[in-house]
Inverse folding.
């Protein structure tokens, strides 16, 4: 047998993926070496994950959770999908408390599944959770004037950790092409008015306003159903002049107002995409710095936000 040749194939743009090739090998040696290498790699990779879940009053996985539509097994599987950013070595215990029947309130810091870019039905990568502040609840009217948020005509509460990159606002005459809904003559500093839909909310539909609601309606169906034919709005090829929403929605914004991709750019968050409420920052650093540049990454750690309780 020829002497084995070991090669590593990887894309320099992707720092987390490589292909290891070792050949030729005797029959059966590939499985033996591959299994050993896999175990070494998995035991050496750093990461954070949920390892134990304890639910007050629940004795086993077949118990029914009062007021929760999922059973214990589904609940635990959903919890284990939550992604954490933590650089410590000691186990951390987190507590999740539900104080209401699941109603998200304006001002809450909410963990939710990213709904996808403005004109997409779904996120490109499914299961990615975002953390933003809930600004608008179902039925609220959102208006932003020179970076100041108004909800139902009243100025919104100013969070304690809010940040702006610039003290100046974009003039309302400057149109942001990425803004949600598509085609609106707004920008992130001067926005709205926009009504947050709720279950049972009925709107008129016509060729002039269809783009304002197209993405949200398509997402309710899980496919592209809204169209305009012969100057008439159709849903699943049926002419319509109105639409009644099937879900409650929320409007989310980041506290770093000038550097946040949020509902101003990709739209509403449906109630069934809300995971829970965030209450603590485990770790915070510059996510734009790759892990390959470790020392610069460590230098970007925001010490004032490590284990910071959120309000």
């Amino acid at each position: 047998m020829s002497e084995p040749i070991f090669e590593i194939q990887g894309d320099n743009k992707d720092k987390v993926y490589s292909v290891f090739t070792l050949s030729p090998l005797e029959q059966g040696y590939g499985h033996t070496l591959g299994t050993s290498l896999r175990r070494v790699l998995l035991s050496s990779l750093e990461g954070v994950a949920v390892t134990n879940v304890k639910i007050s009053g629940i004795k086993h996985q077949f118990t029914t959770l009062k007021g929760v539509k999922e059973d214990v097994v589904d609940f635990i599987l959903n919890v284990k999908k939550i992604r954490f950013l933590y650089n410590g070595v000691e186990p951390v215990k987190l507590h999740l408390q539900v104080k209401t029947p699941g109603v998200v309130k304006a001002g809450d810091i909410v963990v939710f599944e990213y709904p996808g870019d403005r004109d997409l039905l779904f996120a490109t990568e499914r299961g990615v959770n975002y953390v933003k502040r809930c600004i608008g609840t179902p039925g609220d009217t959102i208006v932003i004037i020179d970076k100041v948020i108004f909800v139902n005509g009243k100025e919104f509460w100013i969070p304690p950790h809010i940040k702006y990159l610039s003290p100046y606002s974009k003039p309302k005459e400057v149109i942001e092409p990425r803004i949600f809904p598509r085609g609106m003559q707004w920008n992130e500093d001067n926005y709205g008015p926009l009504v947050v839909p709720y279950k049972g909310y009925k709107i008129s539909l016509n060729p002039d306003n269809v783009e304002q609601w197209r993405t949200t309606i398509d997402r309710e169906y899980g496919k592209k159903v809204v169209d305009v034919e012969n100057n008439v709005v159709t849903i699943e090829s049926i002419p319509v002049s109105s639409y009644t929403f099937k879900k409650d929605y929320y409007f989310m914004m980041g506290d770093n107002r000038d550097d946040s991709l949020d509902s101003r750019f990709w739209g509403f968050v449906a109630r069934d995409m809300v995971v829970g409420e965030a209450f603590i920052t485990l770790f915070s650093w510059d996510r734009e710095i790759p892990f390959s540049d470790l020392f610069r990454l460590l230098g970007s750690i925001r010490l004032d936000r490590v284990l910071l309780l959120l309000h």
